[in-house]
Protein: Protein nucleotidyltransferase YdiU
Organism: Collimonas rhizosphaerae
Amino acid sequence: MNNRLAFPEATGIAHLRFANSFASLPAAFYTRLAPTPLPAPYLVAASEQAAQLIGLAPPACASEDFIQTFSGNRAAADSQSLAAVYSGHQFGVWAGQLGDGRAILLGDVAASDGGRLELQLKGSGATPYSRMGDGRAVLRSSIREYLCSEAMAALGIPTSRALSVIGSDQLAMRERPETTAVVTRMAPSFVRFGSFEHWYYNNRREELKTLADHVIAGFYPELQAASNPYHALLAEVTRRTAQLMAQWQAVGFMHGVMNTDNMSILGLTLDYGPFGFMEAYDPGHICNHTDQQGRYAYARQPQIGHWNCFALGQALLPLIGSVEETEAALGNYQAIYGAKLDELLHAKLGLASRQPDDDKLLDAMFALMQGSHVDFTLFFRRLGNLRLDGSGGDEALRDLFIDRAAFDAWALQYRARLKLENSQDRSRKLAMDASNPKYVLRNYLAQTAIERAQEKDFSEVRKLQQILENPFDEQPQHARYAELPPDWARGLEVSCSS
Ligand SMILES: Nc1ncnc2c1ncn2[C@@H]1O[C@H](COP(=O)(O)OP(=O)(O)OP(=O)(O)O)[C@@H](O)[C@H]1O
Ligand SMILES: [Mg+2]
């Protein structure tokens, strides 16, 4: 009889077996180097759910071994760490060579779903691609990336994950000196649209093909059988990107820096910088203070997603073979985006069927929300409380509107629409609550946690992360985290500084 306990040590760091499939590419794709040590590192937070994805037990995440490994101070066994080269379009302009200027790929490890996950340190020191940068990331931006990666995963939105944030008292100069940190990110691959553009714009067809074959074999093996696998790759990435954009719009997420070097070839949300979640609804809202033209404003994200797919298509054109085929692969973007957004918005409104006037109902709703600067998250969450017989439930919803008469008129139409499909209050609310999160990472919540963390109190980072792990649950004990931002938060500005 086997009466031996499985000791938690069995799932510690020492048991992570690193390989590095990216390192099997030719040397031109990267520079092999070790992270720069982070002085006197300390654990700020670790995500148990992310840890589980690579079979790490929670106690392992508090161990000295963990802190040393994921600060970059101790080389993980068998890790062949490297920084990858890529290029990209930034704000619509070709930026030439970029690359991992402050990220170091440790390698890939077995994931609990049977696949593999790459582990990458962000903020782990200068690389040959750092240009003028110091290779570091500040605690502020690292906490934002950590919290939002995990929050997006909990919302069911494809994203790179964040295993941990490890801080240090070492300072980096931004607008003012700030302490630094390292985030450990996880994704099956960190290859970006800009990784392909790099070889295309350097006229290196051989490397372009090598990269495409690597991505297809590793992450899209089903496409190998297609008559033109490169066409199939572009079509699939286009599909994923279009769906991702719909998911962002439906939850009010704004990325802030949708440059092609921040676009994942796997359709994941990548690079959490000056992101934000829509609060007072304004389709023109720009979350990145540095983006003065509003290229990446909320309402423009879907179109920019398409533009970025075109940039990828341009880079893949030599492999695909013809402009016609390349355009065909890109051609379904709008239809896929539209269908996904339609599906998500119907779910948000608790509508099970499609009716001819649904678009009018939605347009009128968004116009009212904009006119009254209604909080995006609160609106949809409270909409689920509305009762069909008009017997109440909508007081808190109605309170969000300046023009209550206009809201009442819209609510009449909405009720009439619900009656067309024999909607039931209870089941509709349950379904709507599963589509409309109660908790999102509002900027002021992140800011509050960051300010505490800067005083070395990490409890708020950890608490916030746990609340955001179950964004659709009521969690009445945490109801204040779902409230409107306080007055002091109105002037909060988020820029590219990180
Ligand atoms: N402090 C820094 N030191 C060195 N390079 C940097 C620094 N900040 C940004 N970069 C580099 O500038 C380019 C664009 O930066 P961007 O903000 O999009 O990426 P990032 O946040 O560093 O990383 P990622 O896209 O990996 O999440 C990238 O090549 C990035 O590595
Ligand atoms: Mg980036």
